[in-house]
């Protein structure tokens, strides 16, 4: 009996130990879970703090960038104001110099047209500046030709002169948008130049006729190319001249449509309608001037393509000398003794 009691006691002891072990394990697991939860919570808090710090840093960086751009804009604005002031001073000085050179002198004594608007006035100043630079480039070209410079050296100078011609056509196009009459009448040129004026500039076909004798010797192919270019230029000029004549005739007919008293309301309305039609027709003048300048520019470029580099240099010098003599003739004519 005693053995059974001891045996039973031994059997009960392992179960008690097992129960204790389970409780200990559960307590440890609970403590570990609580610890992990606390760690996860701390990690989440740190992540939120880190995200908040990153947002703050981004905002600060954005604010610094915005402030930097604002300073740059302010600096650019101040520089623009200073540049505008300098340009205005230069414009006033060049205008005074242009007046002293007689650019605004009109053979008819009417100077009001050339001063009729800011566009025309600005172009006259720009033209004086362009002519000064053109003379400098031509002198450089003449020196290179006389010193027998290489074709490569000549090509650079010739290309510069050709590009400078493109610039004057661009300036004329812009000025025509504000005062097309100023450009067509050639009030920015000397009286002798205006005598040979055609639609605000030179006749390409007439210029080519003058150049043929100046460019000899020419190969047969070059001579044929120049002659064809002269003929095509003549045809284009004739077409534009006919268009201008048709425009003038149409404009005259519109203005003369109802000559007579305009006291009644009906006549006044008719008069205003005719003026509106005439204004619309005058708007096409800018197109004629633009086409004429395009023809002049294309003729110069095609001539340059036909000729060699050295021949192109001689042609540009001949063109410059021709117009320079026209300007000199004007000065002599205006300075002649008056009886």
Computed Rg: 44 Å
Distance between the termini: 171 Å
Query: What is the mean predicted local confidence, pLDDT?
Result: 81
**How does the helix and strand content classify structurally?**
mainly alpha
The number of distinct helices, counting runs of at least 4 residues, comes to: 10
Give a count of the beta strands, DSSP E runs of length 2 or more.
Answer: 0
Sheet-strand content, in percent, reads under 5%
Q: What overall geometry do the principal axes of the alpha carbons give?
A: extended
Order of helices and strands: HHHHHHHHHH
Query: Which ranges are low-confidence, i.e. pLDDT below 50, for 5 or more consecutive residues?
Result: 1-18, 101-116
Biggest β-sheet description: none
> What helical percentage do the residues reach?
over 70%
Structure description:
There is one protein chain. The protein is mostly helical and 339 residues long. The protein is built from ten helices and no strands. It has helices spanning 2-100, 118-146, 151-176, 180-185, 191-195, 204-214, 220-255, 265-282, 285-306, 309-334. Helix 2 (118-146) packs across helix 10, helix 3 runs antiparallel to helix 9 (285-306) and helix 3 (151-176) crosses helix 10 (309-334). The chain is extended. It starts with a helix and ends in a 5-residue tail after the last helix. 16% of the residues are buried.
């Amino acid at each position: 009996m005693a053995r059974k009691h001891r045996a039973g006691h031994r059997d009960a002891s392992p179960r008690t130990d097992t129960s204790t072990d389970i409780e200990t394990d559960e307590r440890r697991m609970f403590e570990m879970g609580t610890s992990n939860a606390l760690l996860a919570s701390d990690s989440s808090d740190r992540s939120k703090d880190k995200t908040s710090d990153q947002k703050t840093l981004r905002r600060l960086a954005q604010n610094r960038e915005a402030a930097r751009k604002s300073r740059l804009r302010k600096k650019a604005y101040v520089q623009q104001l200073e540049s505008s002031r300098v340009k205005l001073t230069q414009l006033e000085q060049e205008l005074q110099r242009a007046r002293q050179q007689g650019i605004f002198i009109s053979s008819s004594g009417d100077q009001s047209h050339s001063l009729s608007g800011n566009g025309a006035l600005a172009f006259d100043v720009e033209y004086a500046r362009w002519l000064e630079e053109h003379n400098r480039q031509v002198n450089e070209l003449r020196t290179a030709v006389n010193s027998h410079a290489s074709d490569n050296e000549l090509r650079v100078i010739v290309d510069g002169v050709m590009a400078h011609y493109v610039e004057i056509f661009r300036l004329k196009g812009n000025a025509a948008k504000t005062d097309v009459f100023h450009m067509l009448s050639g009030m920015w040129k000397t009286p002798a130049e205006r005598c040979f004026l055609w639609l605000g500039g030179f006749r390409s076909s007439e210029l080519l006729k003058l150049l043929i004798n100046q460019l000899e010797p020419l190969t047969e192919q070059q001579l044929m190319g120049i002659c064809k270019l002269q003929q095509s230029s003549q045809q284009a000029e004739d077409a534009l001249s006919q268009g201008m004549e048709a425009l003038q005739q149409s404009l005259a007919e519109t203005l003369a449509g109802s000559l007579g008293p305009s006291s009644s309301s009906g006549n006044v309305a008719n008069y205003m309608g005719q003026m509106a039609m005439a204004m619309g027709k005058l708007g096409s003048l800018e197109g004629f001037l633009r086409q004429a300048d395009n023809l002049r520019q294309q003729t110069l470029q095609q001539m340059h393509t036909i000729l060699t580099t050295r021949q192109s240099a001689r042609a540009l010098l001949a063109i410059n000398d021709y117009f320079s003599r026209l300007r000199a003739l004007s000065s002599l004519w205006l300075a002649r003794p008056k009886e």
